[in-house]
Amino acid sequence: MHPTAMEVLPTLRRSLLVALALLLTACPRPSRTPPAGGDTGEDVPTGDPFPKRPAVEARKDATADAALAQARQTAQATPDKKKAAEAYLSVRKAYPATTAGQDALYQAGVLFFESKDYVNARKSFNELLFENPLYNQAEDAKRKLALSAMEVGAYRDAYQTLSSLAERAEGAEREQLLRDAARAAEGAGLYGQSLTLAVEQAGQAKTQQERDAAVARVEALVEGRADFVDIARVAEGLPASNPAWPVLTFKLARVYYHLREWTRLEETLNRFLAEAPQSPFAPQARELLARATRRVEAKPKTVGVLLPMTGRYQPIGEAVLRGIQLGLEGSDIELVVKDTQGDVNKTGQAMEQLAFDDGAIAVLGPLLGDDSKRAALVAEELQLPLLTMTRQEGVTDLGPYVFRNMLTNAAQADAIADYAINVKGYKKFALLYPNIPYGVELADSFWDQVTERGGVVRGAERYSHDQTTFTTEAKKLVGRYYLEDRGDYVEGVRDLQGENLDAFRRRKALEKVKSGVEPIIDFEAIFMPDDWRRVSLVAPALAVEDIVTNACDPRDLERIRKTTGKKELKTVTLFGANQWSSPKGRSGLPELIERGGKFVTCSVYVDGFFVDSQRPATRTFVRKYREAYKQETGKDPGLLEAIGYDSGRMLRQLVEKKEGGPRTRAQMRDALSNLKDFDGATGRTSFNEKREAVKQLFLLSIDNKGVTEINVDKEREKAASGGSGS
């Protein structure tokens, strides 16, 4: 059954935001046309703009009539129509409240109109019709007034007058008025009114030429001018016999397609093909109907992949794909790989192809933040499960068909805070981080996690992303930068005032006072979410300010005690995030250790994958990867390869279930939602209620021999039993 306008319009309004977000149709202008059953509140010209009764009671006057006759003779003898019009206006000026004065005003308007002086023509006719809307030539005056208004760009006034005249006209005159009114409405941007008039003209056309012209105007209006609501309103109740019906109906079907209103789309297309099987749009309509039908036809063993396989992000796309292929090795699952090229629009198109053309039961990827947002929007609209591998926060909030398996900033902050507070027993922290999104987001998340667990942040310092020296930040952390706020420093300077010292000795004495100011280390740990290169520069700067970070080395601690003469040392643990992971240098140790030396030993950082982990699932993955790709790439696997491997194996495990895997996309979504304790290379994984992968991350400790994985469970048991976690 064909939907009514009252049913269609609310649907379109509800879905408009989604359509705009996907950028699948031209951006429509706001409608100025009140839809059926309601007022939009727009200022739309309606009705006759002129009074219903004369504002001036004109009288018959013999002298005025004689003057009008003289003006007529003068006008006929004058070839210049503007000068002739002035002759009539002189009569109007001399005898304003007479019938002759009104006749003179009309004649002047006609002459101005004929001479294309539309401004004065409009002025004359407006004045005449305001005084006497019942003037015997009022209809002609109104038409010329409207055409004059159109010529000077006053399209709204022209439309108002012409549409009013057309309501009372018949035959050829009405048809011409409708054409003029449509032109005025389009000029004024009143595309809803213009569409209504064009459709009416198409239905009343007498010749094929007139019909084709009207239909062409309708087609031009529905393609990017008239908005969704206008199209639905005009299409409502329009008989299929109207030549414009196929244009409107097919456009409405395309709107439903873009808005994912599948039921209405199929109803509209089926009616279209039944009523207009020979329409030029019929082949497209059949393809659109077939495409809509295919959206629910999933192939249980076809998995789509969205990755940047060319362009600047090609290396990371290839890394993830190697992991996916390794995870599916030996299975009969068909991978359909789409190259997103790191382009948002190509990502959206590829997602639609996987749904409509390839029949994918689920999709893996993308990686990049904006690509993942677009893919997630389309996934939700087409109800196609998407397991994305982006770090973009909040991507799973876009709908129940969107999942994420990737190390996030929030997960890292949570893991470090949990270990530092609940295992190590620390309560007081400082933050030192770069002013880039990665650093700021991690610092903010860590601060929140510390506060939630009852800890406190004693200090926070931010530095530029390209900074290479960190003396200032280190001094600020321990209270040695703003010395005028330190009582011990102020007192030391005051003592110098009474001594009779020359400039050199005074300077040396002042430097001694400064160096004697003790650092205020009121924190037990420092969180530094930055790249390993920068960390290797920051850590030594902290040591200069007497922040002892290598607390796990007894020999080094003893050396520091002897050097400083302090028996009790205040030690601080450095914590970091996944960008602390570094490649191995010439010595075979990670470059972070080669560059940072003793200043980074005893530190702890978190990552989503550790190639030297002793976890069985991780070791299995590393062995398989080395056998398959080490000769080709010359490198060990990293987080991207491991995430791709686990994501591929998750889908494989669900598809190859002994009792039968998911047959539909909805079943695949439910299966992913219920996935628990999947034992993968990146940890034992489950999806929480927000469809985020939850897993035990890798806590890694640094010593002078390299990086080792911390057995968090054992340390937690030790801490719970009263043993020292330090």
TrEMBL record:
Q: Where is this region: Disordered?
A: 29-82
Bias type Low complexity, positions: 64-78
Q: Where is the composition biased (Basic and acidic residues)?
A: 50-63
Q: Which InterPro entries match?
A: BCAA_transport, Leu-bd, Peripla_BP_I, TPR-like_helical_dom_sf
The organism's lineage? Bacteria, Pseudomonadati, Myxococcota, Myxococcia, Myxococcales
Q: Does the keyword Signal apply?
A: yes
Q: Which residues form a coiled coil?
A: none
Q: Which domain of life is it from?
A: Bacteria
- Any matching Pfam family: Peripla_BP_6
Task: Tell me the protein's name.
Answer: ABC transporter substrate-binding protein
**Residues covered by the Leucine-binding protein domain:** 302-477, 596-706
Enumerate the UniProt keywords alphabetically: Signal
Return the similarity comment: Belongs to the leucine-binding protein family.
Classification via Gene3D superfamilies: 3.40.50.2300, Tetratricopeptide repeat domain (1.25.40.10)
